[in-house]
Design a protein that fits this description.
Shape: globular
Helix content: over 70%
Strand content: under 5%
Strand order of the largest sheet: 1-2
Length: 699
């Protein structure tokens, strides 16, 4: 029996769990007429944005697919895999966002009963996103495997990266477009409402509040889901690709990693291994999702403990399943330590991100204290916190790479990323929970519900800010490990790196790390992340200005609006944010697609390898800094709003709002989008390996 069928069956188990959670959420009370009206406006705006974005994306996907189909060294199979990857990613993101749009109002209503019920509804709404991503990913990879794994000359090796490329393209559009929308609307609503007019957050008199709520869903649910979907599938792709190359060119792979097995059997087991580890992780994630529950304490520690119970429980189960898979596939038990290194690194990165961004800990509390002396102090302390927060995840990633390489060489490094992402179902559920809770808090205020309900939704929202930052930290770590595996696969596929009989990675004799092509590539690659961030943050600024102008116009022209006797034109802000964000996302997206192609064609494969490494090093540091500084600023504001340093309306609070506004595009647009940029450039390079294999560039 081909054991990939286990992946299909497990994927279907995940689908069944998704159906259960969907049914559970949809059976909950939708709330009052006013709550349903607000939810309807958010849902309409979210679906309008995503439909418009997907129509634009469909044109880009079709054009690229035609190009791939006519390139002689690629062909129609690569084009089909590319389109299939794009469709899979769009389907997963759409399903998760659709559920989030229906769970927000129900969470608000559930919080009227109890804190535990509100958490349960919000988390299970997020679990739909998490489990949909892993189920679709596992089933999609299985379909590709069954369709083409037995092609001669290992042509399957150059087809599966196209699946990841299609998923990456969708992720980039969703993350960049959704990020520009959500942070443009959020910053505009905060600046014109809380800072300029002095009205509360989510005040229904602010025409931008619905656009802000819509943005939480299109950016933080659909965008994050697409981001981690591509990480999920690409880590399996990198592992399979490295396996194929290693078995073909280095008998050491079979002798050491799968001792005693014939080469063909070892290759098959090495293909099965990442798929089955992911299958075990999916089952562990389903169990972990059912472990999340809490009492009625409005304390961050208790709320974090509830989610930590689910994620750590899933991690332990995934480790056990991984050991069993490695044992029964006759693989070296050293590979288990590689998987465990990835699992541990993922958990530790999440904890370090939590430490630097949660207001339960000193770094964020110090930012709140700095706000008492003005916005300038807030910005300085927050950015310093973001920079300081880079060292733990970098060290954890480095240790994981060393351990994985020690026990499994290049295959172990790729497998460590498989371990890190094996529990993605529950990890992404905790992240997608955040925007649902955020929406619930906004709906509570707009619907005029009692103060105790807002206290509960605020507690859930504060937890959501932390889980969102933790999820982004996890995504950054996964992107780094994933990109490294893809870069190594590219280097081996085009012959830059070879493997000796003893398993040592070697460069060609005529090439050194200080050669001109690699140095030029490194410099150009390091340039990409800051330019990309500049483009996306400028786009947020343009959107913010347009939103502010529109809200001011409505306050001037609609009589009775500020007195609460007239209704704002919420749809106008949604339309403005949609049009500007979709227009502004095209340039950074096209730059990401074109850059590796141009470097490879003009400067050659050696320069492209340096380019990818330079982008990875610079992008990793920048992504962690932006993510954690933004998350810390956000929760510093929440800490003050809980009553510290003067509470809401104080000078410290106003300074913290400025810090949060600066941090929003950093943590929700530029930072997370860097993950996708790094992975997309790496997988495009791997997909183009057949073209670049015997090509040294035009210059």
């Amino acid at each position: 029996m081909d054991l990939v069928w286990i992946g299909v069956i497990t994927g279907l188990i995940g689908v069944a769990a998704v159906a259960y959670f969907v049914r559970y959420v949809l059976r909950q009370d939708q709330g009052s007429e006013r709550v349903r009206e607000i939810v309807g406006a958010i849902k309409e705006g979210g679906l309008t944005f995503i439909h418009t974005e997907y129509r634009t994306l469909a044109i880009v996907v079709a054009v690229i697919a035609v190009v791939l189909a006519v390139v002689p060294d690629l062909g129609w199979r690569v084009a089909v895999a590319f389109v299939f990857g794009a469709i899979s990613s769009m389907a997963a993101g759409y399903a998760g966002m659709n559920m989030a749009l229906r769970a927000n109002g129900r969470t608000c209503t559930a919080a009227q009963q109890s804190l535990n019920q509100g958490l349960k509804v919000a988390f299970r709404g997020g679990a739909v996103m998490g489990l949909t991503v892993v189920s679709v990913g596992l089933i999609g990879l299985s379909i590709l495997y069954f369709a083409w794994h037995d092609l001669p000359d290992f042509r399957f090796l150059f087809i599966i990266p196209a699946y990841g490329t299609g998923a990456s393209l969708v992720a980039l559009f969703s993350r960049v477009g959704g990020g520009i929308f959500t942070k443009g609307a959020d910053a505009g609503a905060d600046l014109v409402g809380k800072v300029e007019a002095g009205i509360p957050e989510d005040d229904p008199r602010n025409a931008a509040v619905i656009a802000d709520n819509v943005g939480d869903n299109v950016g933080d649910v659909c965008g994050m889901g697409a981001d981690l979907f591509e990480s999920y599938v690409q880590t399996v792709i990198a592992t399979m690709t490295l396996t194929t190359i290693g078995v073909v060119i280095a008998p050491w792979v079979t002798d050491t990693l799968f001792p005693g097995l014939p080469a063909q059997t070892a290759l098959q087991h090495a293909w099965w291994l990442p798929m089955l580890i992911m299958a075990g992780g999916l089952v562990a994630s389903v169990i972990g999702c059912f472990l999340v529950r809490i009492g009625e304490k409005l304390e961050m520690g208790a709320l974090l403990g509830a989610l930590r119970r689910g994620t750590l429980g899933a991690t332990i189960l995934a480790a056990v399943f991984s050991f069993l898979v490695i044992y029964f596939l006759d693989a070296s038990l050293g590979l288990f330590w590689a998987v465990l290194a990835g699992l541990a690194a993922g958990a530790l990165i999440g904890e370090s991100t939590n430490y630097f961004t949660s207001y339960a800990f000193k770094p964020t509390q110090e930012i709140s204290e700095a706000s008492t002396t003005g916005a300038g102090s807030t910005i300085i302390r927050g950015f310093a916190t973001g920079l300081m927060s880079t060292w733990p995840p970098i060290v954890f990633i480095a240790i994981a790479i060393v351990v994985a390489f020690r026990f499994g060489d290049f295959y172990g490094v790729a497998l460590a990323c498989v371990g890190m992402l094996s529990t993605l179902g529950v990890t992404l559920a905790t992240d997608a929970y955040g925007p649902i809770a955020d929406n619930a808090g906004g709906i509570t205020t707009q619907a005029g519900l009692p103060d105790e309900v807002r206290e509960r939704t605020d507690a859930l929202d504060s937890l959501g800010n932390t889980t969102a930052a933790t999820g982004k930290g996890f995504a950054i770590g996964a992107a780094a490990m994933n990109s490294l595996g893809l870069i190594l696969a590219f280097a081996m596929a085009v012959g830059i790196v070879t493997v000796s009989a003893t398993g040592t990675l070697e460069l060609p004799p005529e090439l050194s790390l200080l050669s001109m092509p690699i140095i030029v590539g490194l410099i150009l690659g390091a340039l990409m992340p800051p330019v990309f961030c500049a483009m996306t943050m400028k786009a947020v600024g343009i959107t913010t200005s347009a939103i502010i102008d529109e809200v001011r116009r409505q306050w001037r022209e609609i009589k009775g609006l500020m007195e609460g006797t007239a209704r704002p034109e919420y749809g106008r802000c949604v339309d403005i944010a949609t049009k500007i964000s979709l227009r502004q996302m095209l340039l950074p997206s096209m730059m990401t697609i074109a850059a590796p192609v141009l470097v490879g064609l003009l400067l050659g494969k050696f320069a492209l390898a340096g380019f990818l490494i330079g982008a990875l090093a610079a992008g990793l540091i920048l992504a962690i800094t932006l993510n954690n500084a933004g998350g810390a600023w956000d929760n510093a504001k929440k800490w003050i709003e809980s009553g510290k340093f003067g509470g809401k309306g104080s000078d410290a609070h106003k300074a913290s709002v400025v810090g949060d506004t600066v941090g929003d595009p950093m943590k929700d647009t530029a930072g997370p989008s860097l993950n996708i940029m790094l992975k997309l450039m790496s997988v495009i390079s791997l997909m183009l390996a057949p073209v670049l294999m015997h090509f040294d560039g035009l210059i």
